[in-house]
Design a protein that fits this description.
heterodimer; A: alpha+beta; Cytochrome-c3 Hydrogenase, chain B; three-stranded antiparallel β-sheet; 50% helix; B: alpha/beta; Beta Polymerase, domain 2; five-stranded mixed β-sheet; 7 strands
Chain lengths: 387, 218
């Protein structure tokens, strides 16, 4: 081999090597979590990347699985409510309501009017407490710290009101089969009205801070678009599906034992289906909830708060399924009773589990920084996924 | 009510022999949405899913789970009259719920229509019997993608195989976990180690006999 040939051979090899280097790029696997300050709980996400693009993403849950469905089989109905408080811990009262309503269905108990109104009231207060934190944290996930501080500051007023009635900030355990544990304390109604005004101001502040902000808009608009058909087939519910333009709210379309049909309110939807739409719908929902609370406070009927129920609660044989529109979406309990002190089987349908099951489909083809905004805007609570 | 009757007749027309039973779920009080309960043959599971989605317009997937109808051999572990020792040796015969059943394990699922108008609100709750040895059913992942994770949960909790599922992996439990926790014969070890003090809560009030107790407000 002459020197020229040798040189050209080496050059060719080098070129091939460079070519190979450029073509055969290995995908990169990154691991997000399980600990992340912006998730409510511990969620791990394994994503395979091709450059900046996500090829495949797989959420890994179970770090907080507590097995409530099994535990409920050896607990009396009153004890189960203490457990299910811990499912969605930011809006705990809302977890109790569908379960209690289901048990009341089976026991055929007529709940007094006042109890139904106060239930709806506390339901909406926990919605405000729950979603207002999301409104702030969404800013935090995009690097804006101020909204999170605002949210924590103003949420405290709502939690104080809940605490004054129930005795617990996060886990009220206040709902009983047949009614409620206690009546409202004195002077509470006027105080709550002023808190509701304050929460509306909070919504305005948050909107001033974030909506229209260029960073916020460019990272939210058109990102993570969920078409309505896909969202429905994955079982999305709550604000996530209303942000895809589906006009459907269980509070209006299935007001089981609550008094939503006697209030004047509106279901908010957004046609876009992107992260921004999900955020926007939630802002409106908090506003609407504050108005609902005010209407309930004005229209609160007087009377007893507890129906006559036997002291030892044995739920008659049967099956019941009750679903309500919780802060995170549709939540339901399928109760099977065999006439014992404990449920024979309790299936818990929690909203976040189905809401987040869309992520492998949704994250495919998105960019790495968008993972955070998409997961954030779907708004899940790990206790609600892992149960 | 009319939507429910409509749905019932449409289903029996479309499914024929695969529909083993259909009746509205019993309700009490002011319930605005009627649930239609149906029991179907497991061989036609996918076809039924497609019928519900396309004919009855039940586009929203709610949940998919299972029921183990066997009485727990350990009682309720509450130190009550259900917890007698002889139940360990001879579990009582199985009693099924609404629409009956033939086997120990049943699939339980629900789909629903969505929308604004009041007369189209309809929920359908499905049950399907599974054979005792090697319980298996076709996967709904192609019909309702949302059932993917639900099926993974049922697979690990009840040991029910889903044919045609894209990837049956553990979802909550560690991958080396043995046993099916939500089956009734899986013991709740926490109760074996330490007896439950909860019996105090259901004790009778002192000075009350059974007849009085029925009328006492809680």
């Amino acid at each position: 081999m002459s020197q020229t040939e040798q040189l050209s051979y080496i050059a060719g090899q080098a070129a091939d090597a460079r070519l190979n280097l450029e073509l055969e790029t290995d995908g990169m696997v990154i691991n997000l979590g399980p600990q992340h300050p912006a998730t409510h709980g511990t969620l791990r996400l394994v994503a395979r990347l091709e450059g900046e693009e996500v090829v495949e993403a797989e959420p890994i849950m179970g770090y907080m699985h507590r097995g409530y469905e099994k535990l409920a089989e050896v607990r009396t109905y009153l004890q189960v409510t203490a457990l299910i408080n811990r499912i969605d811990w930011l809006g705990s009262f809302a977890n109790e309501v569908p379960f209690i309503l289901g048990a009341e269905q089976l026991m055929e108990i007529e709940v007094p009017d006042r109890a139904r109104w106060i239930r709806t009231l506390l339901f909406e207060l926990s919605r405000i407490a729950n979603i207002s934190l999301f409104l702030g944290e969404m800013g935090l996930q995009l690097g804006a710290v101020t909204p999170a501080f605002f949210a924590f500051r103003d949420r405290e007023f709502v939690l104080n009101q809940i605490e004054q009635v129930t005795g617990g900030r996060f886990h009220p355990n206040f709902d009983r089969i047949g009614g409620l544990k206690d009546d409202l304390p004195a002077g509470w109604i006027a105080e709550t009205k002023s808190v509701m005004k304050r929460m509306r101001t909070f919504c305005d502040e948050i909107e001033d801070l974030l909506v229209g902000n260029e960073v916020f808009e460019t990272r939210m608009r058109g990102i993570g678009v969920i078409p309505a058909e896909v969202g429905l087939s994955y079982g999305l519910s709550g604000a996530n599906i209303r942000a895809s333009g589906v006009d459907w709210d269980l509070r209006r379309d299935e007001p089981v034992g609550l008094v939503y049909d006697q209030l004047d309110w509106k279901v908010w939807t957004h046609p876009d289906g992107d992260s921004f739409a999900r955020y926007w719908v939630r802002v409106q929902e908090v506003r609407e909830a504050t108005k609902m609370v005010e209407q309930i406070l004005d229209g609160l009927p007087s009377g007893p708060i507890m129906a006559k129920v036997p002291r030892i609660i044995k739920v008659p044989k049967g099956e019941a399924y009750i679903q309500t529109e919780n802060p995170l979406g549709a939540m339901g309990y399928y109760i099977i009773s065999k006439g014992d002190l404990t449920p024979f089987r309790l299936k818990i349908r929690s909203a976040s589990f189905n809401n987040i099951s869309i992520t492998p489909w949704l994250l495919k083809g998105t960019l790495v920084p968008d993972i955070i905004t998409i997961l954030g805007s779907l708004y899940f609570i790990l206790g609600d996924i892992d149960r | 009510m009319t939507a429910l009757e409509d749905a019932k007749s449409q289903l029996s027309k479309a499914l024929g022999e695969d529909l083993l039973g259909a009746e509205p779920m019993p309700t009490f009080g002011a319930v605005t949405v009627e649930n239609l309960m149906i029991r179907v043959r497991r061989e036609a599971w996918v076809k039924i899913g497609e019928t519900l989605r396309d004919v009855l317009n039940c586009k929203w997937f709610d949940f998919l789970s299972a029921i183990d109808w066997m009485e727990s051999p350990f009682g309720r572990q509450l130190d009550t009259e259900q917890d007698e020792e002889e139940s360990f040796t001879a579990p009582p015969p199985i009693e099924w719920g609404i629409l009956g059943g033939e086997t120990r394990l049943q699939i339980l699922a629900r789909v629903r229509t969505v929308g604004k108008s009041a007369d189209t609100q309809l929920g359908v709750i499905l049950k399907a019997d599974l054979p005792d040895e090697e319980p298996a059913i076709d996967s709904w992942a192609s019909v309702y993608p949302g059932s993917d994770w639900n099926e993974r949960e049922v697979w690990e909790m009840f040991g029910i195989r889903f044919d045609g599922h894209p990837g049956l992996r553990h979802i909550y439990l560690p991958s080396e976990f043995e046993g099916y926790p939500l089956r009734k014969d899986f013991p709740l070890l926490a109760r074996k180690v330490k007896p439950w003090p909860g019996v105090v809560d259901v004790e009778q009030m002192p000075g009350l006999d059974n007849e009085e107790e029925e009328n006492v407000t809680n």
